[in-house]
Amino acid sequence: MLFATILVFISFIAYKIYQKTKVPEGLEDVPTISYFGIFKSMFYNEGPDKRWEDSRQVLEKYGIGKFWFHGEWYVVTTDLELIKDVFAKTDLYPKLSLEEAFPGSLMTSYFGTNVVFSNGDVWKRHRFITNPAFKSIPMQLFDDITVKLLKVIEKVDNEPIEVKDLMDRLILDVLGRIAFKFDFNYLEDPTNVLVTTYKEAIAEVNNPLYFLFPFIENIPYFYRTEARKKVAKIHDLFSGLIEERRKSMETDELSKKIDNNSADLLECMINASKNPKYHMSDEEMRYNLSTFMIAGHETTATALTTVLYVLATHKDVQSKVREELLRVLGDNLIPTIEQQKELKYMNMVLHENLRLYPPIHQLPRRENAEIIKFRNHTFLLNTPILVNIYGVHHSPKYWKDPEEFIPERFENENDEKRDQNTWLPFGGGSRICLGNTVTLIEERVMLCTILRKYEVSLPADSIHKDKLQLDKFNDSFTGLKALHLIFKRTTN
Ligand code: HEM
């Protein structure tokens, strides 16, 4: 009897495992990427370069692969035809909302319903309301922040300084000012309580343990009371900002700003909160503030860090960028929007940097809302689909010598020849990044500020000497191991 019970039990478990791991109909012929490679890279927090190593054989040959994770079969792709379809048909390939992906999690309670993770009419409304805030930014906001940046660099003149941390501090301050006229003052005071609480809350939200084993958050022991308190503090900060700004904005003043496109993110949302058609609730505003901060902060800080690295390791390129900016800017310290268009070589460098080190290496998961036929495969409803940006950017199918840093790829005549979907650091289609203009403005301003006065070098004993050491910030964002660079004053 005991033997029969054990046999039934084992058969039941075996059947459950079979059910969970069985390849869905239609995906049988999609080549498989090793589960162990994926798990290992998640577990060890490996960067997108290592993940690409694990999947490149499959993706280069077929442009599409499948892997099993958390009880589901995912499709991952570098195929331009499929990627164009994902970009063009947002309703056919909606994103998985955070509520669906991580129900009851800390991450969901922090980001809630927002422009990045919503779909359909909710997304259209959020995008319509927030889009105008990032069309142009007042350039004078950079006046004193660049002075503050130079002061920090001056203090450590000619000694190595950790650059990811510095860029983190810089961009948090810039973004706070752009999005809601708030000064985090992180550059001047890295220990201020507000910022350390913000950073701790973000670290908790992105704790890799809960990405790997999301179910544990439902176990009372892992409820994360302390972490939830930190998140609540940041929510309170954002709620306070909304309340304060609402009180201080006279209706006339707000309407004028909306009319002449000078309203910031918070003002655009407050304006919408009064509009019955494009209404936005206080809770949605708060979620969007949390979301924009992470979408615009980590990404731009990473891009600036990696571009400083490529300039430090390609001194000839650095000299050319410096010569160009001195010629175009003259005595001007901050480039005007017109001058930024003339910084053609710098723009090529920025593009090539985003190709080589895309700050978002994989688009957030999509799921097809209808059955899709792709080549001889069938994606049944709700198949998880991942667009591998890093893979597209590093594929020899699309780029000659993809591992090399060659800004000239983006020279007009070369650039026009390539399929435009081979460069997708900002995604594409109607869900393209809302901050793609602003982030490039920030990068240009900061490069002009630094390179006018300093030469950037990599210390001889750097761990990044042969290759930039990437790691993982979260499932989509590229992370970096600490990177020290030397800033040596070249002029007074
Ligand atoms: C180098 C810097 C940046 C990179 C590489 C980047 C990358 C991306 C990518 C790949 C997407 C597409 C996501 C998708 O299709 O699922 C995206 C969307 C988005 N980004 Fe960025 N981003 C950057 C900077 C910013 C900045 C500065 C902001 C705003 C402050 C911002 C706000 C957004 C928002 C709101 C979306 C969602 C758009 C939508 O779904 O309609 N990003 N970004």
TrEMBL record:
Read off the Gene3D superfamilies from this record. Cytochrome P450
State the UniProt keywords alphabetically.
Heme, Iron, Metal-binding, Monooxygenase, Oxidoreductase, Signal
Signal sequence segment = 1-19
The yes or no answer to whether the keyword Oxidoreductase is present is: yes
Q: Does the keyword NAD apply?
A: no
Q: Which domain of life is it from?
A: Eukaryota
InterPro entries assigned to the protein according to its UniProt record, in alphabetical order: Cyt_P450, Cyt_P450_CS, Cyt_P450_E_grp-I, Cyt_P450_sf, Cytochrome_P450_Monoox
State the protein's name: 5422_t:CDS:1
User: What family does this belong to?
Assistant: Belongs to the cytochrome P450 family.
**Which cofactors must be present for this protein to function?**
heme
Transmembrane intervals = none
Q: Name one GO molecular function term.
A: monooxygenase activity
Q: Which residues bind heme?
A: C433
